[in-house]
């Protein structure tokens, strides 16, 4: 938490220690914010001065990688070696492994190394080793390593009829060079908090076709053929006019970041999450007070995630010219290709699916690509993979296991009951209000262990809530199961609904 006292509990640089002591924030978090602000400045420079028209892709790859490694070392010191070792090892797997199994080997190696580091840090050293939590960059490169490995397998080994339309679109047919691989995994835009993006999109951005390609009208030559993996495509006419500027989008996202910081300073610190798992707090307050406090403390905890994702995942990428997805119906540029968060969608979600679809969006895309679309028992395995990726502390597993019956119940209710409330605006409005409140309370109940982390605190909280969401979800899922499972469409509904 940002409210912890300042200190030197980091293996990263101590240059900013006076700033940390003056502000009263931990040094590792001061280092993180400063590196993100430097990354934002570097992103503008990267777009304005290191343009593809003036510098080769080789130079752009090299600069993006060098800046990323420098940020990594500044924040984590010698712990950055874990990230570099994982990326190097998985590149060797990509080069030498059989293409039919490269995705499996890469997934096992990346997830295995990530889990081993998390186990050592949490249980062997009990967080006694002074360090910033270096698992964040490890988690991001794990997503990228496995995403690229699956896309290579799809492009070189999988049969066309085995792939979905999305998999065909992002598949690649050639192994990346070492520099391309390092740049994709270690670039300064995403090294700290991501997000993971498709390798082909990143390559287009580096080579200069990222915006130009999306300004062109669809070519009649597509007709089901894959677009080339790279290249300037000289046979196509360039897009009309100059490339759109991301300045307006960046400014809007920076304003949101400022609002999140202000909200944190004024509200979040006054509603500590840990109180929900405190036995004394539970004894002293009634159920309604506990429920109300849990709801508002969870709401207050969200802005710190909004800040990190809005600044790193969107503003920095957009400032570098990455993230353009085309023009909207009003002719204005959209910079949401690698959007990781929709705050309005999260806060107004009227279903578990809608909330999940708008929260940590690129992680949901990754889970869908490497697990949900390919695995048997895909709902359970996707939630388990998500828990394992987040870490080894018990709270993560309580959260994602709890999400399984809630997701099943939410599906059942929507399929069995929703159509009765679509007959008039009044009924629909009432349905939306009830489902919004139910969704927000269910999310609060589900996510609480994720923030409390320990078994003891989690059980104190769930006992204080009388396990009511667990009980209701299981009863609803069982009661509505006959109606719910009758249609094949149910099993093939949007996979993003099940990606945590």
UniProtKB/TrEMBL annotation:
Keyword Transmembrane helix: yes
Membrane topology recorded in Swiss-Prot or TrEMBL: Multi-pass membrane protein
Example of a GO MF term: acyltransferase activity
Pfam hit, one: MBOAT
Example GO biological process: lipid modification
Subcellular location: Endoplasmic reticulum membrane
Chain segments annotated as transmembrane: 29-46, 58-79, 110-129, 395-413, 433-453, 459-480
Main location: endoplasmic reticulum
Gene Ontology CC: endoplasmic reticulum membrane
Location of the region described as Disordered in the Swiss-Prot/TrEMBL record: 217-242
Keywords: Acyltransferase, Endoplasmic reticulum, Membrane, Transferase, Transmembrane, Transmembrane helix
Protein name: Membrane bound O-acyltransferase domain containing 1
Species per Swiss-Prot/TrEMBL record: Tetraodon nigroviridis
């Amino acid at each position: 938490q940002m409210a912890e006292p300042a200190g030197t509990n980091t293996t990263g640089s101590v240059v900013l220690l006076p700033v940390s002591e003056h502000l009263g924030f931990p040094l590792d978090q001061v280092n993180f914010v400063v590196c993100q602000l430097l990354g934002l400045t570097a992103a503008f420079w990267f777009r304005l001065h290191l343009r593809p028209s003036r510098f080769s892709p080789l130079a752009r790859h090299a600069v993006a990688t060098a800046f990323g490694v420098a940020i990594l070392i500044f924040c984590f010191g010698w712990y950055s070696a874990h990230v570099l070792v994982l990326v190097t090892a998985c590149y060797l797997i990509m080069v030498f492994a059989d293409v039919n199994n490269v995705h499996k080997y890469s997934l096992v190696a990346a997830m295995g190394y990530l889990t081993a580091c998390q186990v050592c840090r949490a249980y062997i050293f009990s967080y006694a080793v002074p360090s910033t939590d270096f698992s964040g960059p490890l988690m991001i490169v794990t997503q990228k390593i496995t995403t690229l490995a699956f896309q290579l397998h799809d492009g070189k080994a999988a049969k066309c009829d085995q792939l979905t339309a999305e998999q065909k679109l992002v598949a690649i047919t050639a192994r990346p060079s070492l520099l391309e691989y390092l740049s994709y995994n270690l670039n300064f835009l995403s090294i700290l908090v991501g997000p993971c993006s498709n390798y082909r999109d990143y390559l287009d951005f580096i080579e200069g076709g990222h915006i130009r390609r999306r300004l062109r009208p669809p070519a009649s030559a597509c007709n089901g053929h894959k677009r080339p993996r790279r290249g300037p495509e000289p046979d196509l006419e360039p897009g009309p006019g100059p490339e759109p500027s991301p300045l307006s989008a960046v400014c809007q996202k920076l304003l949101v970041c400022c609002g999140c910081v202000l909200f944190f300073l004024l509200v979040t610190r006054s509603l500590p999450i840990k109180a929900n798992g405190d036995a004394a707090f539970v004894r002293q307050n009634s159920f309604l007070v506990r429920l109300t406090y849990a709801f508002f403390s969870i709401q207050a905890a969200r802005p710190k995630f909004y800040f990190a994702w809005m600044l790193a995942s969107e503003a920095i990428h957009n400032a570098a010219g990455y993230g353009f997805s085309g023009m909207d119906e009003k002719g204005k540029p959209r910079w949401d290709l690698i959007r990781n968060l929709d705050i309005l969608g999260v806060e107004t979600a009227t279903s578990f699916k809608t909330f999940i679809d708008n929260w940590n969006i690129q992680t949901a895309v990754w889970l869908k690509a490497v697990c949900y679309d390919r695995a048997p028992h895909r709902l359970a395995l996707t939630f388990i993979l998500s828990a394992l990726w987040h870490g080894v502390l018990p709270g993560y597993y309580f959260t994602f296991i709890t999400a399984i019956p809630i997701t099943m119940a939410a599906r059942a209710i929507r399929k069995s009951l929703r159509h009765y409330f679509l007959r008039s605006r009044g009924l629909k409005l009432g349905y939306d209000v009830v489902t919004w409140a139910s969704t927000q309370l269910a999310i609060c109940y589900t996510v609480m262990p994720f923030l409390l982390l320990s078994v003891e605190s989690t059980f104190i909280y769930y006992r204080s809530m009388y396990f009511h969401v667990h009980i209701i979800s299981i009863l609803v899922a069982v009661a509505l199961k006959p109606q719910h499972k009758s249609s094949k469409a149910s099993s093939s509904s949007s996979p993003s609904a099940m990606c945590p």
